[in-house]
Design brief:
Blueprint (H helix, E strand, L loop, with lengths): L9 H6 L14 E4 L6 E6 L2 H9 L4 E7 L4 E2 L9 E9 L49
Antiparallel strand pairs: 1-2, 2-5, 3-4, 3-5
Length: 140
Amino acid sequence: MTSNADSVTIDKLVDNVREDPNLIPEEKEFTFTGVKSNREVQVYAEIAGMMRRLLVHPEFTIQDVRDLEGNRLKLDEYDDETVTGVQGRIPVGCLKVRASSRSTSGYADIISWGRNRDRTSNPEDVEDHDVSEEYKADDE
């Protein structure tokens, strides 16, 4: 694969997000993992709406993506493959367990739609991409 971390945009990743068709719903997972001494938690998601929301979240730091063959790819290894998993970090301050349930039970609603994120690994190549309406059906 070519090294293209300088040209990988958040838009490209978001546009290529799909759930793995080889996994049944019980196998499509998401995790939030942390330890008390860290100010960030590790996040992993294989649910399309969650992946898209993480990718555009302004405080999410991408570590790698999973492709359709199950390979974990760093951004410098990514070459326009289908994204079936996203892993990264998010500050502990972004997480909150509410005292009451949300009005919706969709998994993607666990993560707010991010705004104002630098949408590329190279700040000079920022592209604008509003995913809130485009992928609304996948978020449920």
